[in-house]
């Protein structure tokens, strides 16, 4: 009898287990709003040609959104009216990740993402228009890296966007081709607008202010393509003096606070007709990756780290260089211009590729030319440990062939 | 004793579920609303069983997913087989269904969201007892005429079936680590697009494909058939054709082979590379979504900037962790790899998806591997 009792008890337990009759706690969904499901489903079910309308309102998301269908438009009611908030995000490296071509996004805001706000990874014919990306707690190191982040894209238009508070770049175009960045406003980011490893970019009529660096044209090693041919014109890069709040170890963390426009290791860059003022390190920096403290062991052997074919002319500059960031530059300023003086409008770190010189001279097309009326240039002599810095205004006074305007294909921007 | 048997029969009948084995069902289109419509597996009577023709497999070193245990299966149409490829996932015929069921040992009898790290409930001889097990999700990769499709299912409360969950989900859980520490975390089911985040291994074509069933991951002693190499088993049972060696010699060192990351008889380098391969190389390849970073973690890439040695981050943001290079030989505390694998901040961590906890044992392996390297970054 005893045996039977035990067997009976076991069987009851088994019944419960086998049939799963236990009631379990409902899965928690920490921050989601019902709209999250709606929009995610719309993004999953999108067909080419669809327009996904984001209504007016602020919508909370706890996970990344993603779109992988070509030919889709996402349209809100305005960058202050349709707000996608990721303050409660628990998963995903972006707010919205797009892996698709023929994509347009306009008239909405993406706020407080844990990583990048909007990333477009590979695609052609991309329009990002009147989109605001912002970290609403103000500029902080723990903010996400990029606001608007098209990478490995072709034929790209970014216009009339606002990017605030990114811990790397507010607007960043990487490894792309045929790009127009215009009418945007970037403020309180580490880098306001950054064009990196990109061919054929026109950056014009933007405002970059209160960033650590205003407009950056960079080439980095080890990537699928270097970059060249960027025109920076009719922009306002004003008072980009915010203390660098980038993550140590990232390339932008080396940007001195108070940099207006920075060209690093990129080629064929034309900077003209801009207002570049009141940037306390200096208004324009032309430099090589070799002065940025990065490891030579970590560069692919074929990487060309020298800025070449850089042409600066016709800019309205002033008020910069009074309080350069970093001991080397501060010492340089005091030594050459005195405690009350200022660095000139253009600072060149002094690196040029000796291997390419012919009879001791850099070939004409590879020169750095600053032909900007009375704007002065200083060669900081970084290759020799800043030992013999000197004014180089007349040495660098030359002209280069002008670059053609970028023409976007398929009617983008018309 | 007869009474006991009668009781058991009663128990089985009480569940009133069809237990007779029947074949899986391939759906040529659409997203069936329940997992049971595929008839790959059933959970009747407290036991998970696989339908005939559904073959379980495992990998030498798997992807880490918040300590979830995984039951992987492959099902191919009768009379067909996969074709061997040395580097990529095998070429499976149209009609193939690959499933991966994520489950945990739960700490109590009632489901409270509390889960523990191992020991692994065993799947043997076609069945796995479900006592103390919580099934969370089953992801399918289905090879249709137009290509592979990913379809995610979330298991229901009473564990009788799983329901289509295309938009993903977030589930609050508490992890009980082996040393007793408890850690609240959010288990995240990816949405259907996020499946492609890993499975679209070529970010240009964006075609989805399996990642796990590659020669180097499968080349190990079979967990499910005693005394035989898993690749041999696939060849002998007609599931695989074109493997370069005959079955008698298969499984030898001529075939690509990843180490088990936990096997201390293997070299540190082999274990670390296997770990980075399984967790990273589906994106960090020459054509993957992370080719934007210039970091390539396929296992045959030599140590150098391309594999992270002294490599500056490109777009890491907070992922740099304030450290200068991906790998600083000899100095794990200065190596970004260790930071990004350890952190759980969504914007900083690697992999970007698929975990909310830190895989402390995996991080320790990578740290140790870097510590043993000689040199530094000049």
Give the topology.
The complex is a heterodimer of chains A (414) and B (378).
Chain A: H1 2-19, H2 34-45, E1 51-53, E2 57-60, E3 63-67, E4 73-75, E5 82-85, E6 91-98, E7 103-111, E8 116-134, E9 148-159, E10 162-164, E11 169-174, E12 177-182, E13 185-187, E14 191-196, E15 199-204, E16 207-209, E17 213-218, E18 228-233, E19 236-238, E20 259-264, E21 267-272, E22 275-277, E23 282-287, E24 308-313, E25 316-318, H3 327-337, E26 346-348, E27 368-371, E28 377-379, E29 390-391
Parallel strand pairs in A: 1-4, 2-5, 3-6, 4-7, 5-7, 6-8, 7-8, 8-9, 8-10, 9-11, 9-12, 10-13, 11-14, 12-15, 13-16, 14-17, 15-18, 16-19, 17-20, 18-21, 19-22, 20-23, 21-24, 22-25, 23-26, 24-27, 26-28
Antiparallel strand pairs in A: 28-29
Chain B: H1 2-14, E1 41-42, E2 47-50, E3 55-57, E4 69-75, E5 82-83, E6 97-105, E7 114-116, E8 127-129, E9 133-144, E10 147-155, E11 162-164, E12 169-176, E13 182-189, H2 192-199, H3 215-218, H4 230-236, E14 240-241, H5 268-280, H6 336-342, H7 360-371
Parallel strand pairs in B: 5-14, 7-12
Antiparallel strand pairs in B: 1-2, 2-8, 3-4, 4-6, 6-9, 9-10, 10-11, 12-13
Helix pairs in contact in B: 5-7, 6-7
Concise account of the structure shown:
With 414 residues, chain A is mostly beta strands.
As a whole number of angstroms, the C-alpha radius of gyration of chain A is 26 Å
**What letter string, H or E per element, gives the SSE order of chain B?**
HEEEEEEEEEEEEEHHHEHHH
Total domain count of chain B: 2
Largest interface: A-B, 78 and 78 residues
> Main beta sheet of chain B, described?
6 strands, antiparallel
Q: Please compute the radius of gyration of chain B using only Cα atoms.
A: 21 Å
Please estimate the helix content of chain B.
Answer: 10-25%
Question: Which sequence of strands runs across the widest sheet of chain B?
Answer: 3-4-6-9-10-11
> Fraction of residues of chain A in helices?
under 10%
């Amino acid at each position: 009898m005893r045996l039977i009792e035990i067997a009976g008890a076991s069987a009851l337990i088994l019944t419960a287990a086998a049939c799963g009759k236990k009631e379990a706690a409902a899965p928690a969904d920490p921050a989601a709003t019902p709209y999250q499901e709606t929009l995610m489903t719309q993004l999953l079910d999108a067909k080419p040609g669809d327009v996904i309308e984001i209504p007016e309102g602020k919508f909370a998301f706890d996970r990344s959104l993603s779109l992988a269908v070509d030919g889709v438009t996402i349209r809100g009611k305005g960058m202050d009216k349709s707000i996608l908030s990721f303050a409660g995000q628990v998963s995903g490296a972006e707010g919205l990740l797009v892996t698709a071509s023929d994509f347009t996004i306009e008239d909405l805001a993406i706020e407080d993402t844990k990583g990048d706000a909007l990333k477009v990874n590979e695609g052609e014919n991309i329009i990002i228009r009147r989109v605001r990306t912002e970290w609403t707690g103000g500029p902080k190191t723990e903010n996400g890296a990029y606001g608007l982040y098209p990478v490995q894209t072709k034929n790209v238009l970014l216009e009339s966007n606002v990017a605030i508070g990114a811990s790397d770049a507010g607007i960043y175009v990487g490894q792309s081709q045929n790009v127009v960045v215009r009418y945007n406003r970037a403020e309180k980011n580490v880098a306001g607008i950054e064009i990196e490893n990109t061919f054929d970019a026109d950056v014009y009529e933007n405002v970059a202010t209160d960033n650590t660096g205003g407009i950056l044209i960079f080439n980095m090693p080890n990537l699928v393509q270097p970059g060249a041919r960027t025109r920076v014109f009719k922009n306002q890069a004003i008072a980009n003096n915010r203390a660098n709040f980038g993550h140590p170890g990232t390339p932008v963390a080396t940007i001195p606070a108070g940099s207006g426009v920075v060209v690093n290791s990129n080629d064929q860059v034309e900077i003209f007709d801009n207002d570049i003022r009141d940037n306390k390190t200096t208004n324009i920096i032309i430099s090589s990756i070799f002065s940025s403290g990065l490891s030579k062991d970590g560069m692919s052997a074929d990487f060309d780290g020298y800025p070449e074919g850089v042409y600066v002319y016709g800019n309205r500059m002033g008020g910069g260089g009074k309080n350069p960031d970093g001991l080397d530059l501060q010492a340089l300023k005091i030594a050459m211009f005195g405690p009350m003086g200022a660095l000139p409008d253009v600072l060149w770190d002094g690196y040029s590729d000796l291997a390419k010189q012919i009879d001791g001279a850099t070939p004409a097309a590879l020169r750095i030319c600053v032909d900007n009326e009375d704007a002065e240039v200083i060669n900081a002599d970084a290759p020799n440990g800043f030992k013999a810095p000197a004014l180089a205004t007349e040495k660098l006074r030359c002209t280069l062939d002008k670059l053609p305007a970028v023409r976007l294909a398929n009617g983008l921007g018309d | 004793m007869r009474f006991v048997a009668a009781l058991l029969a009663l128990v089985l009948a009480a569940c009133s579920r069809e237990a007779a084995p029947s074949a899986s069902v391939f759906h040529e289109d659409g997203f069936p609303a329940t997992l049971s419509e595929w008839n790959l597996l059933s959970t009747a009577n407290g036991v998970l069983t696989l339908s005939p023709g559904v073959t379980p497999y495992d990998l030498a070193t798997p992807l880490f997913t918040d300590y979830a245990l995984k039951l992987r299966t492959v099902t191919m149409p009768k009379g067909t087989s996969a074709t061997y490829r040395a580097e990529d996932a095998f070429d499976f015929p149209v009609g193939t269904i690959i499933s991966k069921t994520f489950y945990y040992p739960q700490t109590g009898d009632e489901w409270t969201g509390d889960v523990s790290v191992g020991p692994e409930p065993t799947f043997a001889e076609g069945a796995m007892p479900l006592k103390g097990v919580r099934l969370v999700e089953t992801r399918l990769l289905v090879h249709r005429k137009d290509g592979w499709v990913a379809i995610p299912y979330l298991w229901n409360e009473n564990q009788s079936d799983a329901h289509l969950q295309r938009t993903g989900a977030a589930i609050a859980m508490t992890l009980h680590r082996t040393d007793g520490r408890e850690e609240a975390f959010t288990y995240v089911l990816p949405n259907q697009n996020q499946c492609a985040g890993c499975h679209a291994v070529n970010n240009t074509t964006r075609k989805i494909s399996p990642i796990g069933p590659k020669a180097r991951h499968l080349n190990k002693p079979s967990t499910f058939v005693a005394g035989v190499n898993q690749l041999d088993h696939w060849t002998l049972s007609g599931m695989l054709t074109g493997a370069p060696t005959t079955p008698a010699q298969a499984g030898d060192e001529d075939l690509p082979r990843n180490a088990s990351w936990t096997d201390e008889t293997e070299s540190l380098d082999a274990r670390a590379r296997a770990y980075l391969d399984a967790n990273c190389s589906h994106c960090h390849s020459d054509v993957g979504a992370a080719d934007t970073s210039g970091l390539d973690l396929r296992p045959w890439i030599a140590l150098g900037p391309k594999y992270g040695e002294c490599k500056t981050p490109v777009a890491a943001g907070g992922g740099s962790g304030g450290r200068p290079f991906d790998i600083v030989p000899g100095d794990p505390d200065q190596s970004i790899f260790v930071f990004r694998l350890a952190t759980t901040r969504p914007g900083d961590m690697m992999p970007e998806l698929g975990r909310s906890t830190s895989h402390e044992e995996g991080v320790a392996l990578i740290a140790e591997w870097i510590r043993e390297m000689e040199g530094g970054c000049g």
